[in-house]
Structure prediction request, 599 residues.
Amino acid sequence: MAEASRWQQGGTPKHKLRFRKEDEIKTTLQELLLYFIFLINLCILTFGMVNPHMYYLNKVMSSLFLDTSAPGDERTNFKSIRSITDFWKFMEGPLLEGLYWDSWYNNNQLYDLKNSSRIYYENILLGVPRVRQLKVRNNTCQVYSSFQSLMSECYAKYTSENEDISDFGLNSDTEWKYSSATVSSPRHWGFLGVYQNGGYIFTLSKSKSETKSKFVTLRQNSWITRETRVIFIDFSLYNANVNLFCIIRLVAEFPATGGVLTSWQFYSVKLLRYVSYYDYFIASCEITFCIFLIVFTAQEAKKIKEFKSAYFKSIWNWLELFLLLLLKNTEKYSDFYFLAYWHVYYNNIIAITIFFAWIKIFKFISFNKTMSQLSSTLSRCMKDIVGFAVMFFIIFFAYAQLGFLVFGSQVDDFSTFQNSIFTQFRIVLGDFNFAGIQQANRILGPIYFITFIFFVFFVLLNMFLAIINDTYSEVKADYSIGRMPDFELGKMIKQSYDNVLEKLKLKKPQKDEDKSGDLVEQARREGFDENEIRSAEQMKKWKDRLEKKYYSTEIQDDYQPVTQQEFRDLFLYAVELERELHYISLKLNRVMRKVSALP
Prediction:
């Protein structure tokens, strides 16, 4: 009758709930095991794409082309270029000497001069280097009327609308004529603008003397003019010893204010992927990864079809979709620079993917109480953190704007609004240049710094920590009184492990009576008398019976009315608790009287 009554009231039988819970635990374990296999495969795949020789190849090439000084002028290298004269000194000096290695250190010839140069005797120069220039048109800006008599020409900063495509100079060779881009390739993002492809291009010769003569001709005929806004130097190397390509781009930007700003890119990439046995092992991991990708895509499509709009309410589902989308944005180009560019872009996507793949492990944190507390703390205080973030960034951006407007013209860290934002994050972490701020403004500099440290560091950050600390205390208190997740995967794993040991006869099964007996013996050893032990055993029986009836996770969604016998047991349990509290109160009063009687 009781069973039928529960069915009529819409409840679920215990054995049904137990089966559903076991099935849920089994499914979670299967997902966890499968995901760990996928994660291990992804780690092998990503680390197989990285070679420690990449760093050393980039380092030796950057040292050669960036730090080598011009002959007779130790202060002029690529990093220190500040004028057009310095640029030509670099082209005719360190660049020329760094590109052409045609003999051993004792002047013995190493190979046929018709072949490419071998930089540092190990790196083959692929093809010939290329130099490309972009210019702007005259009258792309306006000169104030009072100064038109002094300056009639005006060249603005580089944009695609201001770009000059007309022929100039000798107007005979390709370096004096504009060449359009031959392939659809990404633009270059420099310090002063985003630069398109194409431009005024010339390629160097395989002969060192011919290349030097070319540089002299271009310099004498003013190939670099006031219209020049950027020059690119591109070339590629291959090192067969480590099977790596090094694609190098040196960039010199000529701002409208005058001077030169230099930047560079060194991409060491592995374009010939399958050479050694280890490479073929990585290929097998790639195939396995593709299989996982198909399986996960099918699983997520099935979940979307099953749960529909409810699927998108879980942050873990969004994370899984994000992981799937990250792995479908790869392209290849025949040009070495653009091939290397997209290869590095692909590596960046893989790096972000492996990061979020590790983050997804938090989905299975229910097997650990501490990690579950951390997850509950972050989820519970999220609303408070969002409210705090609004207040924090209002003050933070106000200080960033103040720093940009007051110090932007004199301090590099505040030269742009974006730099001001990142500089303030660095100040919070203890990395700041107070001397530069003070020198820029002796009054507002110290005021800005002291008030920023006080409000952001001492006030706001401590408020942030207080929010998390209070929420963690609440979560810990809830866990201490039994408000825990529905099940802990760790307990299930431990129970399965004990069952396996018992079946293999490596561990004796322990009954509930044995466990109770152990606790009684431990209480006797600690000095409790028999009356206290019997009272504790009676209370434990009541507590276990009531918890099994009302707090068991196996019948969490099963409504059951309270019977008279159950109410009687609960009443007796409450009476016993009252007696214990009264006994404890008497003991505390005795102790207080003894303490007050002390002289």
Notes: The radius of gyration is 37 Å.
